[in-house]
Amino acid sequence: MAESFDAIAEKVLTKAHFEAVLDARFAEQDAKLEAKLDQRFAEQDAKLEKRFASIGERFANIDERFVSIDQRFMSIDQRFTEQDAKSEKRFAEQDAKSEKRFAEQDARFEARFVKLEKTLFLHTWMLGLIVLVLVVPQLQAWLA
């Protein structure tokens, strides 16, 4: 009976039939596994896309803020430039006024010193005359 069963089994289950059945089963399992993996990867891709989209939006918002900050810095720089120009103009005006004032003071001092030198020159001659008039006769009296 075992021999007859083996003979029937060999006729019914051949190696090629067995491999075909196994290949079909493995193909079916591979297809199911591939479908599940594709679905899982699609879900993960969707989640990542959603996250990256929100990150992209956040970066876009940050970029907009940087643009507004840059504009504010540019306006501040412009104000500093204007303020520097005003300060330079004021300093130039003050320097011109100071130079004019110092020149006027120098002219007044020079005029005053010229007047004093004339007066000193006159006084020196007057002292010389006094010496000649008073001291020379006195010296002649003492020496004679």
Task: Give a brief rundown of this model.
It contains two helices and no strands. With 144 residues, it is an all-alpha fold.
3D architecture notes:
The chain is an all-alpha fold and 144 residues long. It contains two helices and no strands. The chain has helices spanning 2-12, 15-143.
Please give the share of residues in helix. over 70%
Shape summary: rod-shaped
Mean pLDDT: 86
Main sheet overview: none
| Count of beta strands | 0
Spans of at least 5 consecutive residues whose pLDDT stays below 50 are: none
Q: What is the N-to-C succession of helices and strands?
A: HH
C-alpha Rg, in Å? 59 Å
Structural class: mainly alpha
Notable traits:
0% strand, 144 residues, mainly alpha
Write the SSE topology.
Elements: H1 2-12, H2 15-143
